[in-house]
Write a structure and sequence with these properties.
Blueprint (H helix, E strand, L loop, with lengths): L3 H4 L1 H51 L5 H15 L4
Helix pairs in contact: 2-3
């Protein structure tokens, strides 16, 4: 007894090609989402780092070295990642 798929080799080849094309489309969509996510995360990180640099620059406007060091230490704690 022969299976139905072995009678017509073209049908299983077409099914395989369709499955591979569907996989290719799924991979392309996933890659597009991943790239968009990475770009968004990079923009958020750049904005956060710019805010930290501005806060550090304001520290240098303080009167004494002790105040400046304390201000910069506080900013460093805010900018360090939470563990």
């Amino acid at each position: 007894m022969e299976a139905g798929l072995s009678r017509n080799p073209r049908s299983w080849r077409m099914a395989l090609i369709a499955a591979l094309l569907a996989l290719l489309v799924m991979l392309a969509v996933t890659l597009a989402w991943l790239v968009g996510y990475q770009v968004e995360a990079a923009q958020e990180r750049r904005a956060f780092e710019a805010a930290l640099r501005e806060a550090d620059a304001r520290c240098f406007e303080l009167a004494t070295h002790r105040e400046t060091d304390l201000c910069r230490a506080t900013n460093a704690l805010r900018g360090s990642p939470a563990k």
